[in-house]
Amino acid sequence: MNLLKFKNRTLPSLPSSGDSANGKRRLFGNGRRQATAALPPVNIFIDGVVKSTEFLTYNDAETICEKVSNAIKQNRRVRLSFRNVKNMTTVFATVAIGNLYKKFPEKKIKALLEIIDISKEEMEYLEMTIETYRETIKLSRKQRRIEEAIINGDFI
């Protein structure tokens, strides 16, 4: 089993084939593809951006999402650190990370975003939350297309 070495933690790595240990595909990559070669990665430490890591707010999540988005727009690798984060909520995960899937293709996120300093359990929770949110996005897009087809008379 390969081990990923993180600052202050050594965790078993998830399979590199794109599948996680529980049979689902990985949502986040290692941040090593498609990045501008000459530029170093952008390191974003959540505990250095927010006021308190005890309770992460919606506004905190928007701030993190904006910082990550700005780096990805520049085609920069992003290392998002969850060090010292005590309670990650569904709202935080959805807004901070999930909203990236509204802005960028999955391949770009997987290539440029690396989540670090997070336990295996927290990573599984994050991936489950984001996958659920992504499915919701897909359903609402499908619903919009159906509604437009009905309005346009294209629906049989």
Question: How is this structure best summarized?
Answer:
With 156 residues, the chain is of the alpha/beta class.
Which secondary structure elements does this structure contain, and how are they paired or packed?
Blueprint: E1 3-6, E2 9-12, E3 42-45, H1 46-49, H2 58-73, E4 78-81, H3 90-98, H4 100-103, H5 106-112, E5 113-116, H6 120-151
Parallel strand pairs: 3-4, 4-5
Antiparallel strand pairs: 1-2
Q: Would you mind describing this structure in some detail?
A:
With 156 residues, the protein is of the alpha/beta class. The protein has one domain. Helices cover 46% and strands 13% of the residues. The protein is built from six helices and five strands, in the order βββααβαααβα. The strands form two sheets. Strands 3-4-5 form a three-stranded parallel beta sheet. It has a two-stranded antiparallel sheet with strand order 1-2. Helix 2 packs parallel to helix 3 and helix 3 crosses helix 6. The longest helix has 32 residues. The chain starts with a strand and ends in a 5-residue tail after the last helix. The N terminus is likely disordered.
Q: Largest sheet at a glance?
A: 3 strands, parallel
Q: What's the helical proportion of residues?
A: 40-55%
Spatial arrangement of strands, main beta sheet: 3-4-5
Q: How much is the average pLDDT?
A: 80
Number of helices: 6
Topology order in helix (H) and strand (E) letters? EEEHHEHHHEH
**DSSP strand (E) fraction?**
5-15%
Termini separation comes to: 53 Å
Whole-number total of structural domains: 1
Low confidence ranges: 1-25
Oligomer: single chain
Structural class: alpha/beta
Cα gyration radius (Å): 17 Å
Number of strands: 5
User: How would you sum up the global shape?
Assistant: globular
